[in-house]
Amino acid sequence: MSYSEKVINHYTNPQNVGTLDAKSKSVGTGLVGAPECGDVMRLQIEVDEKTGTIVDAKFKTFGCGSAIASSSLATEWLKGKTIDDACAIDNMEIVEELKLPPVKIHCSVLAEDAIKQAVADYRKKNNLPEMPSVPM
Amino acid sequence: MLKLPIYLDNNATTAMDKRVLDHMLPYFTEHFGNAASRNHSFGWVAEVAVEKGREQVASLIGADNKEIIFTSGATEGDNLALKGVYEMYKSKGNHIITCVIEHKAVLDACRHLEKLGAEVTYLPVQNDGLVDLKQLEVAIKPETILIAIMYANNEIGVIQPIRAIADLAKKHNILFFSDATQAVGKIPVDVINDGIDIMAFSSHKIYGPQGVGALYVRRKNPRVKVTAQIDGGGHERGMRSGTLNVAGIVGFGKACALRQEEMEEDNKRIVKLRDHLESQLLKIEESYLNGNKVHRLPHVSNISFKYVEGEGLLMGFNKNIALSSGSACTSASLEPSYVLKALGLGDDLAHSSLRFGLSRTTTREEIDYTIEQITKTVEKLRMMSPLWEMYKDGVDLSTIEWNHH
Fold first, then answer.
1. Which residues of B touch A113 (CB under 8 A)?
2. Closest residue of chain B to A39, computed from CA coordinates
3. Which one, A7, A88, B76, B315, has the greatest CB density within 10 A?
């Protein structure tokens, strides 16, 4: 299987690899996937309390190149977005941007789930109402 | 001078030896006859070439020429052996014993026979990949007609106790079939000493052309017969019809002759390179060798690098190094290697494995470059791996509730 140039770029130069303080009230963490499935994605967002805007995003991913690229791309997209807008990111946007083949669509689903879970975690910590349809 | 890309996937296929190609060439355009054409010189020349090839193939495995049936490769050989034996001997019994780490060609042929009424026992293997002889003997029943155990495994290179299995088969008057695709030409294989009744192998794993292989079928003590699975002109003593692949057989024969001459010398060098590769890679923290370390092919190594995923790892260098991974991501299925799982490896370790297959042309420079690239990529990906971070923080990964997709 050959990879798209964008996947290769993200794999070679991943953006926003790292860890935010999961205990901080302003940080939301999403951990999705499972080691036995060959994919684990951890995505974290730091939110400005006043504006509800994501000021920083970090990821760490155990998985194939497409999973790494999907999470790297997601962190890029998240910065500057409100948490509501973040939840509106659809996995198919990631598929299109990275030109993922059908067998790799699950990587984009994982990234979407990670975003939603990170936002849900932030909301819960800050006693904000939960969005409906959040997969937990 | 290091030439890229490097090929270390020699369990999948090997580069054809130039000397083999040179032998084959005249048989495409000049001596193109059909070996079954009895009435003219074109046919005679082809037949002589085929018989010479048959002799070379037989000689490598200590067989008689008449015991070699040419096939299109080991998959066909496996199918012919299993289905052909079942069809020929099913009046004596319907039970077959095999093991869970066999090649798919064997496992799927067995599944097919189950649909036709066969009963198949799939023996587990021990953590090192070896079949337990006691378990094997316990599995034998009065209805058992065949034991099918591979000579050496394609993913981990583990060599089974072939002679001991053959003795058990003989003791209970059962036929013994071995898929020796990875072993023939790589280590000494002798059907008499090893006590094998039927054996499948292939040309392209030993620097010969693709698309040709052989099935050894014993002719005495006992005389074995298999029912043909391809009907037609009655070629190959009626066991495999179809115009013979003359050029392929010439190449296969030459490849066998070269292996017979050079295997021992080649192995001295290959095993040193393999051991160097392995010892350096096992210096990486949390890396594990898969399969028995002693009873193993000299050119194979299978290593898991915990907390990094195999395909992600390959991507770090697969432009320059050709390797194979036991990870599910490299194949269409979502399950990681069934061979590694059969050794009792967790899915996480199975997903993290790489298979190295060296060849007669592998160089020290190539191995050093590979060690450097893999060490670097493992380190890079671990910095990116949430599992590595958790491991380093002392988190027990088994206590986490993962959400499975």
1. 403
2. B309
3. A7
Please report, for the domain that includes residue B364, its CATH number: 3.90.1150.10
pLDDT number for residue B403:
75
The count of domains in chain B is 2
Contact (CB<8Å) A64/B315: yes
Q: Are residues B310 and B355 in the same domain?
A: yes
Within-domain flag for B401: no
Long-range (24+ apart) CB contacts under 8 A made by B276-284 are B276/B364, B276/B367, B277/B301, B277/B356, B277/B358, B277/B367, B277/B370, B277/B371, B278/B303, B280/B371, B280/B375, B281/B371, B281/B374, B281/B375, B284/B374, B284/B375, B284/B378
Whether chain A has a CB inside 8 Å of the CB on B399: the answer is: no
Of A1, A32, A68, the CB nearest to B403: A32
Minimal C-alpha gap between B159 and chain A (Å): 28
Single-letter amino acid code for the residue at A71:
S
CA B380 to chain centre: 33
Do B50 and B70 belong together in one domain?
A: yes
Shared-domain flag, residues B270 and B346: yes
Task: Mark which of B258, B278, B308 sits at the end of a domain.
Answer: B258
Q: Do A60 and B309 touch (CB under 8 A)?
A: no
**Does residue B397 lie in a domain region?**
no
Q: What is the pLDDT of residue A132?
A: 56
Tell me, yes or no, whether B245 and B138 share the same domain.
Answer: yes
CB distance B184 to B155 below 8 Å: no
Global ipTM: 0.93
Q: Do A62 and B402 touch (CB under 8 A)?
A: no
Is residue B1 assigned to a domain? no
Which range is least confidently modeled, A38-42, B96-100, B249-253?
A38-42
Note if A64 is an active site residue. no
> Model confidence over B36-64: pLDDT tens digits?
999 999 999 999 999 999 999 999 999 99
Residue B249 and residue B375 in one domain: no
Q: Is A107 a catalytic residue?
A: yes
User: Does B207 map to a domain?
Assistant: yes
- Structural domain harbouring B137: 18-258
* B58 and B90 both lie in a single domain: yes
Q: Is pTM, for the whole model, over 0.90?
A: yes
Using the CB atoms, write b or e for B183-204: b if 16+ within 10 Å: bbbbbbbebeebbbbbbbbbbb
Residues of B whose CB is below 8 A from A134: none
